[in-house]
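Internal tracking record. Fields below are filled automatically when a chain is submitted to the structure queue. Please do not edit lines marked as system-generated. If the sequence contains nonstandard residues, flag them in the REMARKS field before resubmitting.
Queue: standard
Priority: normal
Entity type: single polypeptide chain
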Amino acid sequence: MAHVPLVPIGDPLERIADRRTSQEHRVALATLEERLHTRRSEVHRGWGQKYIERVHKKGKLTARERIERLKDPGTEFYEVGTFVNYGEVFASELRSPGAGVVTGFIRVEGRYCMAIANDNTVASGAWWPRTPEKIERAQTMALRLRLPTIYLVDCSGLFLPEQSRSFPGATGAGHIFKMNSLLSASGVPQIAGVFGDCIAGGGYMPIISDRVYMTEQAYMVIAGAALIKGAKSQKITSLDIGGAEVHVHRSGCADVRVPSDEVLLSCIRRDVARLPSSAVEFYRGDHGSIEPQYRTSELAGLIPVDHREAYDARQVLSRLCDQSLFWELMAEVGEEIICGIGRLGGLYAGFVINRQGLSGDPERPDRQRPAGILYRGGIAKISAFSRACNDDGIPLIWLQDISGFDIGHEAERHGLLAYGSNLIYTNSTNQVPMFTVLLRKASGAGYYAMNGLPYDPVVQLSTCMARLSVMEGRTLAIATYNTKLDDNFEIVTADQDERRKIANGMRDVEERIERDMDPFVSARQMDTDEVVEIARLRAWLVALVEMSYQSVGYRRVKNPRIWSMHDLRELVSGLR
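SYSTEM-GENERATED OUTPUT FOLLOWS
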């Protein structure tokens, strides 16, 4: 029973697709990913070289330079929320790259942490619309995974011309401090480094941290010198009001005074080293991280950019899992879905992925039906597998490429609403870390069923091919103008002016929906956490799974001898 029967899956790329087809897929994806590289570089520049030089003239580092020096050498910074506010223009025709804050997963002294750093090249690290939500999202990720949280504070407070969009509301700026409190109450270590401006809400953000450092240029104030001068006619500097001399030696609001950015970052690294070590090696045992037999980069030649074209989902798994080994469960039911266990970085993870093309119909063995759609058997299968992963403490990865639920008379007769409710309940109440990837289509209720962002995955990633919407643009245009169309979806009126108006309206709806499905629109609105290259997908998943196993004592992690998975296999195999 203890044996986890991982078996080899996958085939060489040349057996799956001819060279020409594979190259066409690569070229189409490369065009999309080039846009990703260009936009990411644009965000990373902040407000540009002029503002970077202004930071350096003050003897300070930029937020990204601080992160680079804080992380372990040679490790990757997994940034989330890169494209929040991308392309939006605010008061005075100003933009806020990354919403003026850099957030992401960083390895420090061998432990993954969450880093939250005000971008001091963008309005001196001010909080814009969605900045609070972005910070809170990062804090939520840290809370869910119990990751030490590091604040690199250099914040001039709210961007006041847009204060009505970032100050009030349930997720307004003040909610950041509630998240500080929840992290503290849950025993998640928080360390704050104050490097410069720390005004109003920015002054509150570090206070609940377990350790607060201040450089000689730093100050924390409820109100800055300019405001005090206006309100009380007092001529005084912000350093006089709330610098390190005040808060380290008098008020006790900070713990340690340091001379520079570099020294402060070294102190944070020293503090992280004092924390309990990662549990990853314990859970990994003697299993190291072994690359798949088939390279992850081959996914670019395997998955068509055109969402209407099919591919083999098992080939995707073979390019993600360690050694291309996988244990598929309940293969006998719900053929439109693959559920199973593999290793990532030597650690067990569960996978749910939508098949593409055609799958078997259990009620009509002589026929097939479209995959990429959820039917009764598949929904029940996902529910059982999701519950088992939660019970066994196995992190769960959802790989979405779904058009939605089955519809029509037969779907209602099968009670898909009830089966779907069962799945919704399961995913809503799971405690195990779950991560979602939008490979291509993420449509309608299928997006919800496959643990889309409304069902609270710790992180949701999108590839450049992702299309997030209720339905495709053409389908929605037909639904919008349904009363004007015949059974073949042709416009029925004989009036040429009305016909032209309807045709133009349908085209406008379709084009608008197509624009809205762009993954960068989702990322801008925080409807997905990050857009990533397909070749980096395994590295992301390995890191996220490692984070799931890093901390101990906050969730159930069962050893493979007592997994519920073994019972599922036995019960379903008995149906043969």
